[in-house]
Structure formats: structure tokens, C-alpha cells
Design goal:
By secondary structure, this protein is α/β, with parallel strands linked by helices. The protein is built from 13 helices and eight strands. The longest helix has 150 residues.
Length: 490
Amino acid sequence: MSRIKNITRNLRFIFSRELADIEERLNKRANDYEKAIDARIDERSTAIDGRLSNYESALDTRLDERFDERTETIDGRLDERLTRIERLIDERFNLLEQRSDERMERHERKIDAMVRQMTNDIVDRNDVMLQIFEERLDKQRRELRSIQEAGMPESMRENSAEESTGKGDDEAENYAKNGSPPQQLISFRKLADVSAHVKTKVKTSGDVALYHQILAWKKVAHEGLNNFTPDEQEMVNYILSFLDDPQEAHYVNQHLRRFVSTLQRIPPAESSTDRLLELGSLSHLAPAVRKYCGYQEVRCADFWDSDEQLTHHIVRQKNGTDTYTFELRNFNVERDPFPYPDGYFRVVLCCELIEHLQSDPMHMLWECNRVLEENGYLLLTTPNIASARAIEGLLVGCAPYLLAQYNIKEVVDQHNREYAPYEVGIALAAAGFKVVELETEDVWMRSNPAILDLLKQVQISTELRGDNIFALARKSGSPIERYPKELYID
């Protein structure tokens, strides 16, 4: 048994050594295989990396070439399309310029023809009027001279002789030193009395008859102007219900016909957000604008000597419940930019204001254009220097102005220039407005029928002879001309 155990032990030892050798050889072979596989893998990886690099380089080259080809193709197409577009734009611009030139040329020819026709008409009419007036003036001078020679007092003859010989030339200096009027001025005043005396005596002359018709008409010219319809009387009563100041009430009563005519011409509000601006405002018209024209927001502007730029006025009815608060801003309409943004108002009222401006009415009209929305309205009213009333004044030797006196206390309240209807139309067109209605109406005194008959006799138009101009204009675009030659000189 011991022998078998020894043999077994030896076999185990031998087997363990063999197994160790086998395991060692297997490990060695495995390591060799692993190293060989790693080497082959590294070799294949290196080869693959090289091939990938070569493929990537070739791909980049092909992409660059194809990109360049496509870019050149697209550039060519774009150049062709841009060339076609530029050629098309040039053709359209040339066609537009040609059409514009043709339209401007046709328009200029039309205007030139109209101007020539109007010039010829005006010259012809002026020639006729001058001839008629010269004949009448000569006739009156002859009648006046004959009456003066027959019945003038001796003292007046001497004064007249002094004026004709120049002996009274130094009397103006005496007036400056001593305060006594010069004899020439006294003589002119006496001569005016004699002229009146002549007109009352000579009843056979047609001119004297017209003179008497004018004097007779002045006594009744105001009658009937304040005969209001029921609807108009309601407006009048509403305006008067806000007046407490007697001086203001006197002014308003003189202008009631104009106020009613103005309210009737204001375009009504189309929405609750529409705004209206009244320039040269007084407190009496704003509540009526809100009530009868539908404007819930009425802004007012005036000009007074103060540093106060903004104030709020509250007006209340005397025997009613209506109360109205409105904003009143202080600025000069012919000098200052209006303190409102562009396109802020639907309507601007410029009533009895432009005749008070001293130097630059177009500044005001340009600013009116700016603060009006597209297609907004401007309503302008002003006395008519070409009215029948003005002609009547000229025929009796008076100034044609409605208000010709200088205002010693308030220069801004005097009339510095009164306008004819065509001048108002020119000013509005130059400021970028299209005239919707240009009308005249008697609001101060009725036109004398004798003056209208006289105009018809000498073939002068009797249209637009009312004593006040009402011009409603719509904003048609940007202003066109800053200084129209009809209103400004260099």
C-alpha cells in the first residue's frame, strides 16, 4: 500500500509538473497569439486610418469641386436674373418718367392756356372797369369843380388856392411843433363835407343815385341775418346758455350767424375717438361742437402774453346741467410748432384767425396739415375782401376791409390782411389740401342788390361776393409750396 501511495504521489508530482509546463506553454502561446492579434489589429487600424484619411481627402476634394461648380452655376443664374430685373426696372422707370413728363407737359400746357385766358379776361375786365371808373371820376370831378366855383366860401377858395400853389407845404411842420392840424388837412375835411353836399344836391346823376342807394342800404343791411330756423335757434340758445360775461355776450351776439354757419359746415365725428382742434379759440363754441358735431374731445388753442402754456377752462350752463372742461394751449400759430403729434386730429377749425396774422400764414397751414390725420378736414373762415360789401365801401371812398382800424391795445386783434376767395384756395392747395367747398355767405350784413346789379352791368361775376369766406378742405398729401407768390414776395 505504501508502494502504491508512493507511485501515486510520484504520478501526481509528475502530472502536476506536466500540467504546469502545459499551462506555461499555453499561456506563452496565448500571449504570443494576443501579441500577434494586437499587432495585426494595430496594422489593420493603421491601414484603415490611412484609407479613411485618403477617402476623406478625396471626399473633401470632390465636395469642394462640386460646391464650386454649383456656386458658379447659381452665381450665373443670379447674375442673369438680376440683369433681367435691372433691365425690367430700367424699362419701367423709363416708361414712368416718359408718362410723367407727358402728363406734366400736358398739365403745363393746360395751365399756361388757363393762365393766358385768365390774364386776358382780367386785363379785359380791368380795362372796362378802369374806363368806367375813369369816366365816372371825371364826371364827378367836373360836377364838384363847378359847384365849388359857384358856392364855395371865400376862405375855402383861398385854402384851395394855397394847396394848388404849394404855399401850405410848411404847415405840417407847424403841426408837429404846435399841435395844430395843418391847413391842408382842414381843407381836405372841408372838401369832404362839400362832396357830401354835392351828392345830396345833384339828383339827376346815376352815380349819385347809387350813392344814395348805398347809404339807404346800410340802414337795413343787418336786418334778417338773425332770422334762424328752429334747429338753428336751438344752436343759438345752447351757445348763449354758457355766457355770463356781458362783454363776451356782446361779441357772441354779433357773430351768431357766423357761429351757426360754421357749426353746419363741420364734418361730424365718425367715431368716439375722433378729435377736433379749434385755433384762436374762445370758450363759447367748444360745447356746441361737442353737442352738435359729436366730438367728445375738443382741444383749443389761443395766444396770450404769458408764460403759462397750458390751462383748463370749465364752462357751465346758466340754466342747465351741461358742464364742459376743455384744454387751452398758448402758442403762436404763425411761428411755433403746434404742440401736438402728427396725424392727431380729424378736424382743425381755423375760424376768423388768418386775417389777424402778421407775417406768415403758411406756417399755420403747414402745421394744420401735419397734425391732421390722412383725409382729415380743415375748416377755414375769414372776411372776404372781394365781397359786395367791400366794393360798396370802395365806391363811397372807404377802405374795403371789414375791420380797418388799428388796435392800440391789442395788436393781435386787428385785421392785418383780408383775403379774396381765390387767395384762400391757393393757400390751401399750397399747404397740401384739396378744397371740398369754397363758399361765401353774408354773416355781417346782407349784400347790396345795387352793387350786384352794377357788377352784372359791367359783366363782372357776382359769385363769391358774400362778406365771409367758408372753405372746407381735405388733407390730400404733404404740403407743396412754402411761400406762394400770390401771398409772399422775396
